[in-house]
Design goal:
The protein has 547 residues and is an alpha/beta fold. It is built from eight helices and 22 strands. Residues 1-108 are annotated as: Disordered.
Amino acid sequence: MTRNNPPRPSGKSGGSGKSAKAGKASKPGQVARPRWGAKPARPAATDRDGFTAQTAPLAPGEEPAKPVREPKGPGASKAERPRKQAVRPPKVLRTAKPVAKAVKAPAAPRVPAGDPLVGERYEVEVGAVAHGGGHCVARHEGRVLFVRHALPGERVIAQVTEGTTKSRFLRADAVEILEAAKDRIAPPCPFAGPGRCGGCDWQHVTPGGQRKLKVAVLTEQLAKLAGLTPAEAGWDGSVEPVGGKLPAGEVPAWRSRVQYAVDPASGKVGLRKHRSHEIQPIDRCLIAAEGVTELGIEARDWPGITSIDAVAATGSSDRQIILTPAPGAQLPLVELDKPVSISRIDEHDNFHRVHGRTFVREVAAGRTWRVSNGGFWQIHPEAPDTLVDAVLDGLDPQWGENALDLYCGVGLFAGALADRVGEDGAVLGIESSKQAVVDARHNLAALDNVRIEHDKVESLLPRTGITSTDLIVLDPPRAGAGRETVAHLAGLEARRIAYVACDPAALARDLAFFREGGYRPVSLRAFDLFPMTHHFECVAILEPIAE
């Protein structure tokens, strides 16, 4: 099998005329490139904006390097000569100038056909839990109802919240429990329940009962979309608790990032109701991390603000709030209980610093990570270490191996892989968020065996020239990687692939695509990183199917 280099600069290092050893920096200021084989050196790989690892934009608050002046004549000194850098991307990586697109007028809202059934009540027997939304399936007179606040096996009075006489299915809330399941408890949160806060799905379920529901969802999706039993997927049939098991009635304060909505009339904060723009006022969110709660956001009025993102970093004292003001409104003068950095989002979704830093510092996997405004980071404090450990245990990276980290975010998995493969190995990360790429390059600047590129995975990966690799990690968005990307990855003949998934349906679909490409799961673990909600995280390890 052939392993091609991602493009990197050619030329001689230093003034000795000797070639630098591949993958090593040969003089001060020269950044080493990851090595992907013994192919001849090629021009530096650039992202779709024309940036190399050395020419990427600086993060907010960073001091720019002093500009290097061009030599003005043959007598210019060495100090004035510009450092050798590839600044013009190869043709294959050049991006065309943006073309203005016609703006379509918004479509008129669709009016459901049939007579409305909202408010109607039916007595139903509750069936199995369904994927997404925290609801269970019930039937009434041949019509399917997706019922929230219910549990499998219960008999309830379901009140319709969405649907008409012509709807294929109805949405409903269980407003009266006639026969309760053994895993039902009184919701610890006073704002949980039908027609109230939509932040949690399963406040009415014991922690163990919540994990049983998640097991049922994953089992069904694997069977329906991938044709796999738990044993065939390498899964022991459990969803692992993270942070220790809790007794019934106790709520873990795990959510380190909370998005509050603000009532425009009163300025009071709350959380939105399920599938609604209506706001449920709250004075405390039980699942919010202590660092979020201690800011005292719920105790203040926020006139002129439409939403507040509150962030409490793990491993540092960094706290941040991001305000979205109403159009034309000024920021209110509010005194909080703890020191906090403040940013705002304008009407074009651009971030602006108001006070303090534009990022927080998270500590995980032996490093401190800068995560800027709007950047992705797991919201459970123990999630980063839990997922990194699962990925490394499954891949078992070896010294000198090459790895891809796709949808790499701020570089969490890339950093962990780089430590394992060492200076004789290489890691290439690809991420579509510009700011996340800036953060990742900052976070991993000390590692010579890592390169982070900015582009969509499906766009850049085919242009890297890489035809094989040893290891792959992919952590795609909720929709999954998709057939085309999976087919390309399967063609790289990796020894092992780690798939980190936040949606069991997308995971199952992509596992089916990997099977078409000659890969099968040998291990699957599920983690309860989002207690009180229907969400959970999975890590699947895949290997080539033996011939």
